[in-house]
């Protein structure tokens, strides 16, 4: 397995792989890898000849009051996991390699980024779309794999790829959950034992919504209120958003007639966690 640290070296490697007829798959990550990331790698291996995993904690997608400095970083552990899982290349650039002091260019996707996580994390998606564009330009992948836990992120990246005519196939992989159904996330590392228990409310409330829909409830207001009440029974938990949206357009739904994506963001203590679930009628 190779480790590549510079844009130039990554582009040269990508060019020679492409010349040799290899299909390149990219798994963009911020490190602190867990089984969710490894499932993206497995998917990328199925879809390509050479898998590049990028590890870069991207400063531009963190707000001023967010956890950039505290974000878990352990390159040696990530490297061991990636060797064992069969990655071919780790692309691991430093911050000043990606954002030298002369840096001034950002990629923004309108509208889709204004709601849900975009509303509570201003500038977050601008950082994501900018770094993903830069990763695409360095790694030159034929396909890139993203996790469905970040439901809005996937929609935004798909929009960007289509709108900017990027020649990259965007592939998604299902959410990987712990045994007790908590969606895997690097931020789970921050939870205390009690908070870890409280965090189960995310999946439990999604399940509750699914049950209500299965039992025939179609009024989104009523479903939202029912799961809000369930979440607010917990003292240490507060709601950022709960929305029932159209899975394709991300538009809010008032009355369920077809497929619906239930998306939520919840603070457990100070830790903001997200999850989502799709229900098809
Ligand atoms: O999902 C993530 O880990 C990040 O947002 C990504 C796509 C690697 C961009 O920094």
Outline the structure in words.
This protein has two domains: 2-173, Rossmann fold (3-Layer(aba) Sandwich); 186-275, Pantoate-beta-alanine ligase, C-terminal domain (Pantoate--beta-alanine Ligase, Chain: A,domain 2), CATH 3.30.1300.10. It contains ten helices and nine strands. The protein has helices spanning 7-19, 35-47, 75-85, 95-98, 117-120, 124-139, 151-163, 193-198, 200-214, 220-232; strands at 2-4, 24-29, 50-55, 89-91, 143-147, 169-173, 237-245, 260-268, 271-279. Strand 2, helix 2 and strand 3 (50-55) form a beta-alpha-beta unit. The mean pLDDT is 98. The structure holds pantoate. Residues 28-30, 58, 61, 128, 131-132, 150, 153 line the site of pantoate. Pantoate binds next to strand 2 and helix 6.
Return the structural class: alpha/beta
Low-confidence stretches at least 5 residues in length (pLDDT < 50)? none
What's the level 1 CATH class of the largest domain? Alpha Beta
Radius of gyration: 19 Å
Name given to the CATH homologous superfamily of the largest domain: HUPs
Strand order of the largest sheet: 1-4-3-2-5-6
Q: How confident overall, as mean pLDDT? A: 98
Q: Number of folding domains?
A: 2
Topology as H/E string? Answer: EHEHEHEHHHEHEHHHEEE
What is the CATH-assigned architecture of the largest domain? 3-Layer(aba) Sandwich
The tally of beta strands, per DSSP, is 9
Binned, the helix content reads 25-40%
The total of helices stands at 10
- Biggest sheet layout: 6 strands, parallel
The ligands found in this model are:
pantoate
Under CATH, the topology of the largest domain can be stated as Rossmann fold
Strand fraction equals: 15-25%
């Amino acid at each position: 397995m190779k480790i590549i640290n510079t844009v130039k070296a990554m582009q040269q490697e990508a060019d020679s792989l492409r010349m040799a007829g290899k299909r390149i798959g990219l798994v963009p990550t911020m490190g602190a890898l867990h089984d969710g990331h490894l499932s993206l790698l497995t998917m990328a291996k199925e879809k390509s000849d050479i898998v590049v995993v990028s590890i870069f904690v991207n400063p531009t997608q963190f707000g001023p009051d967010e956890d950039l400095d505290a974000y878990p970083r352990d390159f040696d552990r990530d490297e061991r996991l990636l060797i064992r899982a069969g990655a071919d290349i780790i692309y691991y650039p430093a911050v000043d390699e990606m954002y030298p002091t002369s840096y001034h260019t950002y990629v923004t996707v309108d509208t889709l980024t204004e709601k849900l996580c975009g509303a509570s994390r201003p500038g977050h998606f601008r950082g994501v779309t900018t770094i993903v564009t830069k990763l695409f330009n360095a790694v030159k992948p034929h396909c890139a794999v993203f996790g469905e836990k970040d439901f809005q992120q996937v929609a935004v990246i798909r929009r960007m790829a289509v709108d900017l005519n990027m020649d990259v196939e965007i592939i998604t992989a299902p959410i990987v959950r712990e045994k007790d159904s908590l969606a895997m996330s690097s931020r789970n590392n921050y939870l205390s034992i009690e908070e870890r228990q409280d965090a189960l409310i995310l999946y439990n409330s999604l399940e509750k919504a699914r049950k209500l829909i299965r039992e025939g409830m179609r009024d989104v207001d009523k479903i939202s209120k029912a799961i809000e009440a369930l979440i607010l029974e917990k003292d240490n938990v507060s709601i950022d958003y709960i929305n029932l949206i159209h899975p394709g357009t991300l538009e809010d739904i008032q009355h369920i007639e077809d497929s619906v994506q239930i998306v939520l963001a919840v603070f457990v203590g100070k830790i903001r966690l997200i999850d989502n679930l799709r229900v098809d009628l």
